[in-house]
Amino acid sequence: MPPTPTSSTQPLIQQPRVILYHQTHYHDGNFVSALPLLTEARSNIGPTHLILAALHLNASPGNITLNDDPPFCAKHEALWEEAGILNDVGVKVLVMLGGAAKGTFMRLDSDDDQTFESYYVPLKECLKTMQGHGLEGVDLDVEEEMSLLGIIRLIDRLKLDFGQGFLITMAPVANALAGGKHLSGFDYEALEVMRGGSVAWYNTQFYNGWGSVQQGFGQILARGWRPEKVVVGVLTNPGNGHDFVEFEELKALLRMVRQFCPNFGGVMGWEYFNCVPGGHARPWEWAESMRDCIVDCQ
Fold first, then answer.
1. How far is CA 95 from the centre of its chain?
2. Mean pLDDT within 129-142
3. Cα separation, 87 vs 95, whole angstroms
4. CA–CA separation, 149 vs 155, rounded Å?
5. Residues 154-189: b if buried by 16+ CB within 10 A, e if exposed
6. What is the DSSP-derived secondary structure letter of residue 111?
């Protein structure tokens, strides 16, 4: 059954989003600053959203890490300071929960309410602290088996505890929206029918063997997905995974998508620190180029 139109709590935007994930916070021992996304911009600021990755719920309830360290340790002080600055100038900052490291959603999927609460309550407190540093939402990257009821419970609790203005996004592989095999366990079409109004958009991974932009985007729309909720997710560097789309080809594809679907959800890049064409020296250039590409093809 294809998704049906739902009344979203999030307003439809006039411009497609430009989203970057930011997981590698240190490279060769040096802090990777996101501020050049602001300070080096020629005209418009490139990204609309920056997603900090990745938050993990470990085996012991309350043991939460941002990558390998506690979220608010000294190592991350500069990251949170920059998050607040980005937020102040209008770049929305989210944090990614889960990802390739297994366990987070298994723990939140427990049938036992007490077990769920033991993991969820520390997560809630962690996110509330992050709100003080400019956090505006959470990206749920479910790359392990989870039940439909389990993900609905999590989404409902997040909306209850943080309000309707708190962004909840998801990061399915492209096959998940095209009706194929995927990583999350639950049916995204069923989730969209039941809780589409609570999920702002889907950062759809068109890489690592899970579907191509050239074919997959059209297949997804053919199944009834609203284009404004489908963000085209790509690799920003061939070293970040498989199925990298060369920079000029990507721009041509995005122009084609925008002309065919003016209200498509935007573009997402994994990840910031080594974005081409600038690479490690000038990773901010990718977002600005994507923004220019999307605006120019109106």
1. 8
2. 98
3. 13
4. 10
5. bbebbbeebeeebbbbbbbbbbbbbeeebbbbbebb
6. S
